[in-house]
Amino acid sequence: MSISINNLKVEFSAKCLFDNISYIINRKDKIALVGKNGAGKSTMLKIIAGLQKPTSGSVATPHDTTIGYLPQHMTISDTATVIEEVRTAFSHIHEMHARLDRMSNELASRTDYESTEYQDLIESMTALTDRIAMEESENCEAEMEKTLMGLGFVREDFNRPTSEFSGGWRMRIELAKLLLTRPDVLLLDEPTNHLDIESIQWLENFLTTKANAVVLVSHDRAFIDNVTNRTIEISLGKIYDYSVNYSKYVVLRQERLEQQMRAFQNQQKMIKETEDFIERFRYKATKSVQVQSRIKQLAKIDRIEVDEVDTSHLNLKFPPAPRSGDYPVIADNVGKAYGLHQVFDNATFTIKRGEKVAFVGKNGEGKSTLVKCIMGEIPFTGNLKIGHNVKIGYFAQNQAQLLDEEISVFDTIDRVAVGDIRTKIRDILGAFMFGGEASDKKVKVLSGGEKTRLAMIRLLLEPVNLLILDEPTNHLDMKTKDILKNAIKEFDGTVIVVSHDREFLDGLVEKVYEFGGGKVKECLGGIYEFLEKKKLASLSELERSTTPTEKPSAKKSEQKPSDGPNTQTQTRKLSYAEQREHEKIVRKAKKKMDEAESEVSRLEQEVADIESIISTGSFPSDIYDRHAATTKQLENAMSLWELATLEYEEINSTK
Predict the structure, then answer these.
(1) Sign of CA dihedral 149, 152, 155, 157
(2) Cα–Cα dist 333/347, whole Å
(3) Beta-bridge mates of residue 393
(4) How many distinct helices (H) and strands (E) make up the chain?
(5) For 354-382, what is each residue's pLDDT tens digit?
(6) For residue 9, which phi and psi values (nearest 5 degrees)?
């Protein structure tokens, strides 16, 4: 199976989106489709899916090849329960049975036994019979349950009407249906926008281990890095095809642009020299042959075109934060329930001034709810104290949707700006890539990313010292996300980020609060340290859960007579394998503990060195900041070492 895209050309008005593009999608390709906003990534997916026709060219799809397409936005209007809706994913089995019946009837009516068509029909019937047998041998109900739970649903959700769920959860239902059909080619447009970290990791695993060919558009760098093995960039109507994942593509692309620029500069130099020669000797009869030769040479040159590099620069900088109290947020046994449903309870934690923390966990576990409690938007139980002189800047998950769509970009900012800032609105909009005519556009014609940027500008209009950002990266492209991340890093106030974007959180936050099972757990360290600890914790839990089952099985084998000479050998091999696996887990836990201990020792020495410099009385002006930062790192490292030690002792004691 391979899909062939041949000489594809797409034109909108006078603009050429694609210009004679050709490439092939092979059976096991995992392709990331990349390019700047408006390059035509979503259009490309629609054309491959057969939902849009190109201006010229074709997409050759082999007979019986199935294609599954998940658009970025869709309108869903089903009325069934979750499980009933997902069960429709297996309707294709009934269709395959109907096709097999039609083939069987055709075969019975034919007498051209020696013909190629007759043999082709038999082969098609055999292949279809094998496919039906394979799909029916799988437990459909178990697959549905596994897929729905992987995407964040719980069993209690299965029999709820789909109409009770938000748009994001309805998209998950559609994604579950799509994955269960196991199409030959999966086309996914921003599939992670409505998923949490755990669901994204599950989807990564599914796509890498179970999916066939995949073509995806995503601004989640970690996701496409983990899933794809090929990157196709769309730029200036052309494509550049790289047989590597996104991170390696970025390096190769930079090399290509540098080579392209050198070739362009060399060609421009040669053209200039040729034009100068023609101009200098145009009217000299003795040079007329050479001049004509150079004119022809110039006409034949295939001009090198430099790929468009986005030179617009987004200078995103939050205003200096007014000094707040030492503890902007103190939560003591905070809880929130809706009727009989307890979202979370007994949440107790303290966020210090200047800390940058992340709220993570499955959707519906209370991340945005706790943010609303901090904002004072909803009632709650327990005590929640906002510190002295805390000024909150809040970016809500639906902030972009709250904009007035009927007014212009300029008016959106003009209506909230006060004082001297009103004289600088055009400058601010220009810095956010709304310069010139773009500032006069109506909000309703903006893309999702542009609306998010516009909502972010509103947040910058007054100085705050506690930033609360609820899913700020949805609809932002990779470049804008990097700029926002750097701005938050440089912000000297306190930050709470609710996000499922691991790449965005990596290196940004120093503490993670996990929401799940009605609890809020604090985890010191960055996002990948948190995920690693979760993995270790689940390993030790698995170790604990498998250990008790070994004794009854051993007992059973003692009571039951041997079925053959190899039974005891097999039992010994199994216990040996289990023992080796346990030793492997213990070694990994010990290595983790030793590394954590080394980091503590290193930081203790660093703190001692800084204190030694301070004691001399002659030191640089930033020495106290360095001392505070290193002491905080040491505290985090101590916590990680304690956790690693506990995990090692717990795993080592399980025999």
Answers:
(1) negative
(2) 5
(3) 467
(4) 19, 18
(5) 999 999 988 778 898 999 999 988 999 99
(6) -135, 130
User: What homologous superfamily does CATH list for 1-66+183-243?
Assistant: P-loop containing nucleotide triphosphate hydrolases (3.40.50.300)
Identify the H or E element spanning 587.
Answer: helix 567-615
Task: Evaluate if pTM is beyond 0.70.
Answer: no
Q: Return the percentage of the chain with pLDDT > 90, whole number.
A: 20
CB distance 365 to 515 below 8 Å: yes
Give the integer Cα–Cα distance in Å for 201 and 535. 12
**Tens digit of pLDDT for each residue in 252-273?**
888 888 888 888 888 888 888 8
List helix spans (H) across 151-220. Answer: 167-180, 197-209
Question: 3-class DSSP state for residue 88?
Answer: helix
Q: What share of the chain is helix, strand, coil (3-state, %, to 5)?
A: 50, 20, 30
Integer angstrom CA distances of residue 580 from 23, 645, 651? 47, 21, 14
User: Which pLDDT tens digit goes with each residue over 200-240?
Assistant: 989 999 999 888 899 999 888 889 999 999 999 988 888 99
Q: What angle do CA 138, 227, 68 make, to 5 degrees?
A: 55
Domain coordinates in residue numbering, the chain: 1-66+183-243, 80-180, 250-300, 329-530, 533-652
Q: Which two tokens stand for residue 10?
A: 């797409």
